[in-house]
Structure formats: C-alpha cells, structure tokens
Amino acid sequence: MARKRRKNNGAVGSTLIWIDNQRRVDVSREPVSSALDLKINAGETIHVWALPGAENQLQLFPPNSELAQLRDLLLLEKGLGGKTVSWDAGEDADVRTYRQLEGFFRVACRLRKSGNTLRLTLPSDAIDLGYFKSGEPLIVFCAGELVELWPRDRWREVSSVQDLRELTRRASRALPE
After folding, report:
1. What contacts 32, CB < 8 A, 6 or more positions away?
2. Is the CB of residue 137 less than 8 Å from the CB of residue 152?
3. What digits encode the pLDDT tens for the residues 138-170?
4. 16-to-69, 80, 137, 159 alpha-carbon distances in Å
5. pTM confidence score
6. Alpha-carbon distance 17 to 5, whole Å?
7. How far apart are CA 9 and CA 24, in angstroms?
8. Considering only CA atoms, which of 42, 7, 1, 39 is closest in space to residue 22?
9. Domains of the chain
10. CA 1 → CA 22, 90, 137, 138, distances in Å?
11. Which residues, in sequence order, are CB contacts of 92 under 8 Å at separation 6+?
C-alpha cells in the first residue's frame, strides 16, 4: 500500500508515500504525531482538520490549535450559533471566513496496533476536488509544528531552486547560526 521512497526523520523532513484506493496513507508516527501534538494510543482514531492551501497542498492542524478549535465550533454548532446571514452578504468578510472554514477537510489519524505507523485517511472530497489521486504519490512535509501533504508534481515545483544566491540569503535568515 504505502511504498516509502525517501525519508528524513529530523525536525524538518519530507517523505514520498503513495495514497491507496481507499484514500489512506501510512506515515512514520513520530514526526507527524509530534508536530501535531497527537495524544493517541495504538488502535485509536482521532480526527484533525486540514486546510486547503494556496499552493494546492493540505496543511494539517493540531487538534488543540486555535484555528482547529474555531472550526470545531462551526461543526458542533451545526451553523452560525444563531447569527443571521442575509441573502446579500455573499461578499462580507464573515461569509468569506465561513466559506474558508467550511472548506477544511477532516482527516482521520489512526495509530496502527503493530509497528510504528500512523495511518491518515483523507476524506473523499480531497480526491473528488483534485487535491490528490488514488494510487499516486504524495509528499508529507514536516517542519516543527507544520505538517503538509503535497501532490508530487506541485512539490517538485515549490521545492525547485532557481536562484541559488537568493536561497542562500533566505536560508541564512531562516536557520540558526
């Protein structure tokens, strides 16, 4: 199912994995569960929110993050908590916010009983909307508390280097001495 090609277990790393026909990907437990601060036992499933990003990636949020908790409110309230939205409010800032929050995906995270694997199951909408395709590779990128899922082709585009001098300047600012 999940054929692993490249792996980096440091605080920053990326792994090339395959998504199966049931929208599942198996990842090494430690980098993802640490980054998302998942409190999960073997055989247990929890859900995290994934935000569709501007670069066609999905960013997973820790369950205790402020944005995940706000999205939970929308789910639990089954609406706007009594707030009225009029027919002509389509371009209001609040309505744009509701749309963006509604665009989040719920990703199931299950810690496998055997091995040290965390299974992520993407919702069918993530496939139907074209973020990923079953049977194709994707990249799991972790950096600190950031966890992203990238389509392979988009990853090649966003990770390619065109100006080595500019990359060196940015890396000097981004990385500690």
Report:
1. 38, 60, 109, 118, 120, 140, 142, 147
2. yes
3. 999 999 889 999 999 999 999 999 999 999 999
4. 30, 39, 7, 13
5. 0.84
6. 7
7. 21
8. 1
9. 12-174 (3.40.1550.20)
10. 10, 43, 11, 13
11. 85
User: Which uninterrupted H or E stretch holds 125?
Assistant: helix 124-128
Condensed to tens digits (0 to 9), the pLDDT of residues 53-73 reads: 999 999 999 999 999 998 888
Contact indicator for 96, 169 with CB cutoff of 8 Å: no
- By DSSP bridging, strand 146-151 and strand 58-60 are antiparallel
User: In the beta sheet, which residues pair with residue 106?
Assistant: 49
Report the alpha-carbon distance of residue 148 to residue 139 in Å, rounded: 8
